[in-house]
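Appendix C reproduces, verbatim, an entry submitted by the partner laboratory led by Prof. M.T., so that reviewers can inspect both the input and the predicted structure.
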Amino acid sequence: MKLTSCSSSTELMFPSFEGLQCTNLNAVISRHILKVKKNNVKVSNCHAKKLFISSHLVPGQLEGWYTGKKQLEDAGQKLEFVRTLLIDNYDSYTYNIYQELSVINGLPPVVVRNDDLGWKEICHYLYEENAYDNIVISPGPGTPACPTDIGICLQLLLECRDIPILGVCLGHQALGYVHGAQVVHASEPIHGRLSQACEIEHNGCRLFHNIPSGKNSGFKVVRYHSLVLDAESLPDELIPIAWTSSSDALSYLETQKSDIVLETYGSQIGQKSSLDPFSSELRNGTSWLSRHTECMGSGKVLMGIMHSTRPHYGLQFHPESIGTCYGRQIFKNFREITQDYWLRSRSSVVGERKVHHADLPFRGIPRRKQLVNDIDARKSFEMSNLLNLSLPSSGSKFLKLKWRKFDYLASEVGGARSIFCTLFGDHKAVNTFWLDSSSTEKGASRNLKFYLLKDLFWESTDKSLENLGRSRRARFSFMGGKGGSLWKQVTFKLSHERRGGNLSIEDGQGCVKSIFLEDGFLDFLNKELLSLHYEEKDYEGLPFDFHGGYVGYLGYNLKVECGISNHHKSSTPDACFFFADNLIVIDHNYDDVYIMSLHEGQTSTTQWLDDTEKKLRGLKASAAKKFKVDRAQPVMHSPSEAGFVAEKSREQYMKDVEKCLKLIKDGESYELCLTTQMRKRIGQIDYLGLYLKLREKNPAPYAAWLNFSKENLCICCSSPERFLQLDGNGILEAKPIKGTIARGLTKEEDEHLKFQLQYSEKDQAENLMIVDLLRNDLGRVCEPGSIHVPRLMDVESYATVHTMVSTIRGKKQPKMSPVDCVRAAFPGGSMTGAPKLRSMELLDAIENSSRGIYSGSIGFFSYNQTFDLNIVIRTIVIHDGEASIGGGGAIVALSNPESEYEEMILKTRAPVNTLLEFQKESTS
């Protein structure tokens, strides 16, 4: 089911900077002057007295802009563009605001964390340099009553009485709190839920110009909050400007049923608001306030306030959310409020105000982030250190690619399974990889037209219904093993005694070199990829993006290199990759097979291509017969019945869910993705056979097999979820899954369960929060205006479950490297919750051990600067003879502890049952 989102930003298709309306700018260049804080450790004395480590993942070249002085000589001329200082309260939605303001204001805002600058520094830029026209205070976790949650924001609201300020969510609460209003618990937490169309009302002030109000108006907003301002405690100088008629809320899809704008409210559109925020009536705030507090009445939740004499506004809801209607109009109105304000004050101030980057601290994506004893030892990063993709660096390599294509060969030789087992399956398939789009293996593309003509039908054992959409999910499979002269294996393990970690590099001859990486693995990988040079003509005509390069995984603990501390040590390596110079690619849409070989410089050899072509042509279609697919109805077992030992009992897991619910109620998080793991000793079994069993039982578009024999490590993955992809056109795509339900035993039951998932308020809230989080993460590295959501809350069906999936895309900024993009979004938001930084800190304290490879990512980084990574779920990790399987789920305000436990067990069912069945077959 395809939905239309409310946010106007989703309709923009990559306008790049041409669409930003940056007219008459003298120059637009990146700021590179840095200022580093002496101490980035932030200890909260509020609530649970937790330790929070500051982190910054932002697109550096868009944070500071210099365009010279504004030319405002004409007395009647408004500001040509608006310069915003955006205060980030460590939130996961700040860069959604950043994207909106970049388009609306004519240039991107400058982003600083709420503890980056002291008052003297901010005062210097606001009043001496006249560098900014307005301030936006972001949402964030916690409460304005806690100094470490709110930082400099309270002082800004108190002292900057002559600068327009807009506070969102936490910023809104801060505006009320600083003037004496009380922040209290809402009647219920509202996270990722939309107020019903008739609920949102406003008073028609300038902030809501051209926005309808009242019953069936179509003004629907997304709310992420468990705390509110007590309307009864508002001081006289604060005026309520928006409110709800009740605390009830609807799910996203339910609100799509009422998009009618009544004529009485539609007539408001286009009319000039009659309420001037600085009129004499509003300066006498008491009489105005008494009128409108009476209008609110009892039982209504305050959604917006304004100051009676200052240009300060607050909104409890999130105008930047994908689900909020008229969100962009609100930001436009704030821009116009700012322009009009400075037009009135221009004669004494604005003539000297200029767009300025000066010495504000630069917030680039952290490349040198490690933690020592919970101390943030992040080094400053300069834009000048970004390597130019077109310029060789020291140790650079010039790579040449040779390839051959064989039309329709896959079906003639028995498919991907037959090819892999024949070419790479000997000797226990050591040092091999297979990025396996196994859900396309059953002839989906060839039979698609037949199914469409025959209409949908049910076949309980074959699950043919799912094949209809599989060619859309993942078209190509990639496989290979130890081989050519460029092959190597890199293994990284974080150090817990000092910053960085140990890297071992083994080449094709078995020689091993060990080095210590002070700057971490992602920095190493970034330099490696940027040192590879090539000619695009080598891969012209290839329909896929992986042409050779690094294949492997990033473990969950690499979040430490993205700004988040680790409380637990992983028993498995934190990253492990092959550099694959020889590989086979299968196009499942057409059954074509490609063989590819990379070599360095002018050296040229076709030996591997010749040998592999000979082996492929020697395969017979009958080879598939020895890989008989088991169609027997599976027997379901619980993990304990299958012999797994869980890290946490049912009772303990449910208690952990209760802890999460308490943290959500207190405003510490909107959503917490709680996980656990179960383990079982399995000894030396046929690991490849186990993976083949798993791909039959639970085919998935982002499945993978990895065998790092030297580490005694095998990964059997049947993931349905893409973390992040960067294609050859510079388009980033994320496909988070949030919302899972078991398949039914009959067609009728299955359709009922699918419908139940589609309209589940809880699952929609989970999905919406993560969609907004991924929009934020992509917004750090994508061009302003390019982020869009082509598919929102689709339900996809797999062998054992239905899942709710959304798709987010954006156009990568040219100066951002592939590793920059990963660093901005890792770990995947669907495995963390939001706000991301705070949520991961809380989860580390609740969970007993490291997630290891689970919750990380498997995939490739191609030498031509593309990548595709999954989310490691539905996976069996076998290390030193022990199998581990992770599972979990997103805890939101609507969660039920018992239901959450059952959902966690459901997600582990496919790998658990597969392992048990395979062990029984192996011993029979």
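The chain is about 25% helix and 25% strand. Additional entries are available on request from the coordinating office.
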